[in-house]
Structures are given as C-alpha cells and as structure tokens.
Amino acid sequence: MRPAEELLVELGVSDPRDIDLPAIALCVGAEVQYRRLIGCEAQIIGFRDRAIIYVDERVKNPRRKFSTGHELGHWHHHRGQSFVCRSDDIGKPTDPNSKNAERQADAYSGDLILPPFMIEPRLSPLGDISLEGILTLSQQFSASLTATAIRIMRMTRQPLILISQDLAGKRWQWPSIGVGTLKVRADIDLRSSATVSLAGSNKIGPSRKESASYWFDRRHIEQFDVRVQSVRTSEGEALTLLRVLDPRMIDTYG
After folding, report:
1. Domain count for the chain
2. What percent of the chain has pLDDT above 70?
3. 156 and 245, same domain (yes or no)
4. Are residues 38 and 96 in the same domain?
5. Pairing of strands 238-244, 225-232
6. What is the tens place of the pLDDT at every residue in 37-55?
7. Which residues of 46-70 are buried (b: 16+ CB within 10 A; e: fewer)?
8. Nearby residues of 212 by Cβ (< 8 Å), 6 or more positions away
9. Mean pLDDT across the chain, nearest whole number?
10. Judgement on whether residues 143 and 106 belong to the same structural domain of the protein
11. Residues 131 and 106 occupy one common structural domain
C-alpha cells in the first residue's frame, strides 16, 4: 500500500463515505480552513509537527476535495515546509512515481480520495468499463470523472486508453497496461466522437465503433476498428474512453 492508503487503514476508514479530509487532517496535525485566497488555489503553512491548510472557498467540489488532499500530500512528503499552490500546480495527470513536489502531492491526494484498496473490489462488477461505470464510481467517492478514470486506467488490464482533447488536439493520454505502447494522434479527427462531444453538452455520449484511423496515425491501421465513448468535461475538453477491439492491433502497433 502507498502512504495515503496506509493512513486510511490506520484510521479505520474502509468506506468512501467516511473519507472526511478535514477530519483526517486533524489526525495528522493539520487544520483545514476554507477562505478566499488571492493568487493561489491552496496553500500550506507548516512548522514542526503542526500545519494550517488554506483552500480557496470559491473552489467547488470535487476540485476542492482534491486540492485539500494535495496539501495533505505536501504535509506527508515535505513536512515542515510551506507551499503556495496555484490551480496549474494541482491535478495534472502524471507518473505517480514522479519526484516533482507538486506531482508527489497530486499522487498522494489521488490515493487518499480514490484509494486503490477500495477501488479494486468495485472494478469487477463494472464488467466492460464504460464512462457510465466510471461516473458511478466517481459519485461513490465524491471525486471527479477524470480523476476516477485515471485511477481505473492505472488498475485495469482491459485494453483501454483515456484521452483528453480540445480543438487543438490531444492534451494527454493515459493508457492501461493492456494496450502496450499505443499512442493516439496529436491532432483531432473531425469525424470522431470527441469532436461531437466538444460541440455538445456535458452528457456522456453513446458508445460508438469507429475506424482506428480516426485515432491513430499508423500505416494500414484503418483495417481495425475501435470502440469509443466521449464526454465534454466542465473544463470544456473532450474526455474519451477508447477500447481496442482486436488484440492483433496491439500486437502489430503496440
């Protein structure tokens, strides 16, 4: 288990409804206060074994919850130091083993809000993972759809890729271990479901079969299809769950 999970187990927290970050903070010597901040989204002021965490009161959940967990991550990894964290510092998809201080704090927050030991037994009942299934889990854990989807990508062996795009193209992708080294195109194909989601509402779109050439720039890849499902996030980006249907595509291009 990672440190945030160990803390939850130590405190006897076994249900997502009991993940109360201000209460957990008090157990580790930190006090959380929500107030209006200028120039940052959250900050922590630590000295010896005590700390005060401030989070901008204008930030709404689940973002507020993640920002609180982020500062608790600093308290765990960088105790005694103070950090002022802007919105750009918090919540970037990354390698959880990164040594960057902000990314370490992000990884800790993710483990605290979406602990793998609670997620794992909930994965099998989902069957083939869909955005609807991810949304159900995100609601159970009071987490964002994107954060929940990334957590699942890190744990599942289903042949899936999570992709974030805007009109300029790919912002990032998070593949599961089941797709090898497949990388999606840098640009966005106007025929894809992601384009439809960007132009539409924030409702999860239907699952659609599309040519792999809409998503991958590889020679002769049009012989394969993929199944995709997209939704526009509150940040105005398209979040797409892509499923590789034919294992030969991974063998050939992954």
Report:
1. 2
2. 98
3. yes
4. yes
5. antiparallel
6. 999 999 999 988 999 999 9
7. beeeebbbbbbeebeebbbbbbbbb
8. 221, 222, 223, 224, 225, 226, 249
9. 94
10. no
11. no
Taking the C-alpha atoms of residue 44 and residue 55, their distance in angstroms, rounded to an integer, is 9
For residue 79, count CB atoms less than 10 angstroms from its CB and return exposed for 0-12, middle for 13-18, buried for 19 or more: middle
Q: Is the pLDDT of residue 152 over 90?
A: yes
- Which CATH number does the domain housing residue 34 bear? 1.10.10
> Per-residue pLDDT averaged across 99-120, rounded?
94
% pLDDT > 90, the chain: 86
Domain with 177 in it: what CATH number? 3.30.450
| Shared-domain flag, residues 123 and 98 | no
Residue 92, pLDDT score:
77
Amino acid at 250: I
User: Of 78, 113, 148, at which residue does a domain stop?
Assistant: 113
Q: Are residues 126 and 93 in the same domain?
A: no
Domain boundary among 83, 113, 143: 113
pTM above the 0.70 mark? yes
Same domain, 45 and 59: yes
Q: Which domain holds residue 200?
A: 116-253
Asked whether the beta carbons of 119 and 152 are under 8 A apart, the reply is: yes
Q: What is d(CA 170, CA 2) in angstroms, rounded to the nearest whole number?
A: 30
Rounded-to-integer distance, Cα 34 and Cα 15, Å:
25
> Do 223 and 128 belong together in one domain?
yes
